[in-house]
Amino acid sequence: MAEPDASSEPVPSVPPGAAATWRQVSWLQQAAQSVRGGLQVLDVITEAVAPAIASHSVRVLRYAHALACSEMAQERLQVSRSPAAFASYLDDGTLLTACLLHDAGATAVGASWQRFEVQGADRAAAFARAHGYSEDQVRHIWEAVALHTSPHIAERIHPLARWVRGGVLADFGTDLIPPDLRRRTEAEVPRLDVERTLSGIVVEQALRDERRAPSGSWPADLLAAHRASADADARLSAF
């Protein structure tokens, strides 16, 4: 691997060409071309999720890769921090697949009664299985996606889940990555107001079927914030 519901769900307004911008990033193309199913997973997120969510997923991959490199370097493994060397480690494709599909449930495609994290995990696992990943790899991908909003659990279950959650937290502002990496990544892959887009879709799913926001979950927190105020952006307080 190289470096890194329903049809009326809200569709974000994005600049012309934004949907394709992230696909042109050289390190992402290198990553996708170096692992099985890599190019196909780019097609999946292009078609299935909003441009803001696709771009977020690409940034999560970049940050998860950086966190993995840092962690492995601390364990004295010989891992390069260069994007060009992304293909030389973690080359089984699980990191790319889990990161890029971690929000695959935040979509109108394949509507489900389950919370978006589980719907996304099911989609990611089905994709991985169809592309020849082992059952252990499929299970790790499923767990990493399903648990990416579950603090303290994702960090402990295995490295893949820890890196995916770390990448998500980093993209939403947690101080886990160097500021220069954040600046360079966001210059290549703009944010496109992902907080508003993602939270809007998750709340809309929950309003249609509250089983998608079980008590204690992040979707439930977003739904409660949405209902607590007439402000259209009230849900952002729970982001």
From TrEMBL:
Provide the HD domain boundaries: 54-162
Could you tell me which PANTHER family the record lists for this protein?
CYANAMIDE HYDRATASE DDI2-RELATED (PTHR35569:SF1)
Protein name listed in UniProt: HD domain-containing protein
Task: Specify the species.
Answer: Kineococcus radiotolerans (strain ATCC BAA-149 / DSM 14245 / SRS30216)
